Amino acid sequence: MTLPRIVGISGNLRRPSRTRTLIEAVAMKVARTQKIAFSIYDVLDAGSGLGIALRRDELTAEAEYLVQAIERADALIVGTPVYKGSYTGLFKHLFDFVDPKALENTPVVLTATGGGLRHALVVEHQLRPLFGFFSALVVPTTVYASDLDFTDGKLVNEEVAVRVEGAAQQLAGIIQTSFARNLSPTLLATAG
Ligand SMILES: Cc1cc2nc3c(=O)[nH]c(=O)nc-3n(C[C@H](O)[C@H](O)[C@H](O)COP(=O)(O)O)c2cc1C
Could you tell me the pTM of the whole model? Predict the structure, then answer.
């Protein structure tokens, strides 16, 4: 049986990363209700070849691998640290190489982390429009966590955990419906 391929993409430029932990938390919750094949990458996995490429044919093999992982995913869980009120530059640069049609109807969970609560709506004001551009199927619940919500690298805030659960349930629901009908989620919307 082919498992749904869920790909986590994190815009963190440092490791260890709270953003990556948050994405993994969502994926773990999805995995409790649905068998999935989960892979996670951050922009560091793309190597230094990502930042210097201006065209897709200039990407190094490792950066191209990430772009293809995004394009071939059945669903995405994306996240970024807030840098200057927005996603990190390399997070956006990575998605700038993605084929504009590749994510049509792809289910997506949006997450972000920041130093405090001031930029909590970055998920709505920055990430949601980006995935609106791609006509992706963004689930209603987004997840934002601040640095204070982590202790020793672990997510400890109960309210954030509730949102993680909500977003994961919404994603799992879409995946279950589409895979139960033996369709990839991206085909479900067109199949009706
Ligand atoms: C260059 C830089 C800019 C930042 N700008 C913001 C910001 O505008 N708002 C905010 O809430 N946090 C800001 N932060 C804090 C990070 O978003 C926060 O520490 C985040 O949890 C880091 O995620 P990571 O552990 O995945 O790298 C900034 C951090 C750096 C290094």
Answer: 0.95
